[in-house]
Amino acid sequence: MTIRKTVTLVEEINSEYGAPASPPLRRVAIAAVFENPLAGKAARADLKPLIDYSLELGASLTKTALATLGASPAQLRGYTKAALVGIGGNLEHGAAMIHPRLGMAMRRSIKRGRVIIPGHAKVGPPGTTIDLIYGPLDDGWDLDAFDSTPVLIHDAPRPHEIVLWIGYATGPRVNARSKGPDQKEVDALVASFASGQ
Fold it and tell me: Would the N or C end of the chain have less CB density within 10 A of its end CB?
């Protein structure tokens, strides 16, 4: 498949609501815009070409993202993925890009990532916004790592294109302090369901 273009967004947040971030929160989001080979085809068309391509893109986009961010995999705190499908395609084309194999390619590239990577797909015309939802890499209850940022590309996706986004963050939300349960507390609650409490 041919990539029409890539788009890279880098954020460095030094303060939020008057409170400094130390160190600054750095995020990179990178997108590949490419022709959807299944656009206009039957709804039951084989998704394998998209799934296979997600492996290739996951590795190459992660390499570029880390170089752009100037961070080692050990410095990462959050990650994300999303797909935006042009109106000539359908939602399952985006799901094929982000759910079956993309996360494995991202993890293989950074040699980390025990926790599911937040990701979603949607269908829309050029300029449609999609939210990148960041989640923690290794500790599912690292609630401070959850964050989001909206992204868009003014001329993509065209009707027969897909935009695949991946992203990484080096830290928690600036001023993160909303503490929740830990794994032990959740395990105890779930165990209480079985005992009828």
Answer: C
Is 0.85 topped by the overall pTM? yes
Q: CA-to-CA distance for 55 and 81, rounded, in angstroms?
A: 13
Q: Is the CATH number 2.60.40.1250 carried by domain 3-194?
A: no
Hey, how many other C-beta atoms are within 10 angstroms of the C-beta on 83? 29
Distance CA 158, CA 139 (A): 37
Question: Residues 93-112: pLDDT tens digits?
Answer: 999 999 999 999 999 999 99
10-60 per-position pLDDT tens digit:
999 999 999 899 889 999 999 999 999 999 998 899 999 999 999 999 999
SS3 at position 135: strand
Distance CA 165, CA 47 (A): 19
Rounded distance, CA 98 to CA 177, Å? 30
